[in-house]
Amino acid sequence: MFQGINSRKQRGTKLVDSMSEYFSSWKQNLKTSKQNLVTAPGDALMAAAAVCYFGPLIRTARDELFRDWLRVSHSLFVSNTVPVQEGVSLHVLLSTCDELGDWERRDLPKDEYAVQNALIMRTCGNDRKHCWPLLIDPHGQAVDWIQALHKGKA
Q: Which residues form the Dynein heavy chain ATP-binding dynein motor region domain (predicted)?
């Protein structure tokens, strides 16, 4: 009888210990989610602007334009109008670690410019059956990557 009680007590203790470990994780996730709700409008604005305007620009022009947008958004943030999350970038806003890892396995170059191009292309083609942005691809990298991405889907 006492063994049954002790075994239940031990299982209960393990359950409480495991729940307390999750508590700090849940608390951090809640804090992050609340912050993301505050910055969602500004983040969406930055992502939409980047997808619309980055396409034809070279890397340095993209960086300069994004810094200008961040400077303007931070000045608006001071007046409590359009907050943007800290450390924001196009790949932070529009992708996941899993997606980026999958793209790397399918031979997408790892540099920021290639990732931005892939995100713009994917965003432009989302939920559109035969719609792709104009790709100027003198080295054939985009074609190879798109073929690898859609291999086995046809």
A: 102-150
Query: CA separation (Å) from 43 to 13, 25, 55?
Result: 43, 24, 18
Closest CA to 53 of 63, 43, 38: 63
* Measured CA distances, 56 to 24, 51, 119 (Å): 44, 10, 14
CATH number, domain containing residue 123: 1.20.920.20
Instruction: Look up the domain containing 101 and give its range.
Output: 41-151
- pLDDT tens string 13-59: 888 888 877 888 888 999 988 988 888 888 888 888 888 888 888 88
> Is the distance from CB of 95 to CB of 119 less than 8 angstroms?
yes
Query: Distance (Å, rounded) from C-alpha 146 to C-alpha 136?
Result: 13
Question: Does residue 63 belong to any structural domain of this protein?
Answer: yes
- CB 78 within 8 Å of CB 70: no
DSSP 3-state percent helix, strand, coil across the chain (nearest 5): 70, 0, 30
